[in-house]
Amino acid sequence: MSIQERPILLRNLRNYLTFLKDYGFSEIPSESGVTLKLPSGTNKLSHCSVGTDKRPEMKAKKIVTTKPNISIEEVREELGDCTRCDLYKNRKTIVFGSGNPHADLVFVGEGPGADEDEQGFPFVGRAGKKLTEIIEKGMNLNREEDTYICNIVKCRPPNNRDPKPDEIEACNPFLIKQLQAIRPKAIVALGKPAASTLLGRTVPIMKERGSWHEYEGIPLMLTLHPAYLLRAYTLENRRNVMNDMNKVLAKLKK
């Protein structure tokens, strides 16, 4: 490592440790047996000492056993200027998805909000910033390069209400094709509507978050929606979400 690179590494490390402390962690175990203890009563972590970082890393290239029958671009083209349900009447734009179409990890949310409807990309408002924080600071991944993000419906429900069953049904074929095109190593369902849609049943998210399921043979993790995390910003909820993401990282490492 060059001298010029050290300040950047230290800054990133401090940001990561601050993030973990905010999520209720007091120490970080590693596979080497070295434990990092975070100081209590302060968020100033510049004097922490650490052992070897053994956190799982995303591999640069995904290994697939079969070639997808359709590409993300083809799915978007098939969706077109969709009028398959009434959500199109009030939308400004279709929010299809964003990120790496060959990513190992896909996050599936509920539906676009006002910011997403304005900009045309998923998770760009307050909940999106929280999701980016979880991905980049908590998981040490790059949102655009290491993940793909989409929703169960592609148009904003009025007043940010939950999508109706017929709206989900109209969009579901395109969600299915998105996931078929990407064929990730793991999927994370953000919140009850996404989890219920992917599993085909009503999911009690507070009871089942943190548990592994399968979607078309792909490991599926259920966790809380970032918007809920902002509304109920408790230490327990923050810690639970990070524990869920650590399970995802471990799965990606296999």
Structure characterization notes:
By secondary structure, this protein is α/β, with parallel strands linked by helices. It has two domains: 1-54, no CATH class; 72-253, Uracil-DNA glycosylase-like domain (Uracil-DNA Glycosylase, subunit E, 3-Layer(aba) Sandwich). It contains ten helices and eight strands. Strand 7 and strand 8 (218-223) form a beta hairpin. Helix 2 (72-79) packs antiparallel against helix 6 (165-182). The longest helix has 19 residues, at 235-253. It is globular, with a radius of gyration of 19 Å.
Output the keywords:
alpha/beta; six-stranded mixed beta sheet; 10 helices; single chain; two-stranded antiparallel ribbon; 254 residues; 13% strand
Compact overview of the structure:
Helix content is 41%, strand content 13%.
How many separate helices?
10
Distance between the termini: 28 Å
Order of helices and strands: HEEHEEHHHEHEHHEEHH
CATH architecture of the largest domain: 3-Layer(aba) Sandwich
What is the CATH third-level topology name of the largest domain?
Uracil-DNA Glycosylase, subunit E
Strand content: 5-15%
Write out the strand line-up for the largest beta sheet, numbering strands in chain order: 3-5-4-6-8-7
EC number: 3.2.2.27
Family: Belongs to the uracil-DNA glycosylase (UDG) superfamily. Type 4 (UDGa) family.
Catalytic activity: Hydrolyzes single-stranded DNA or mismatched double-stranded DNA and polynucleotides, releasing free uracil
Domain Uracil-DNA glycosylase-like: 96-246
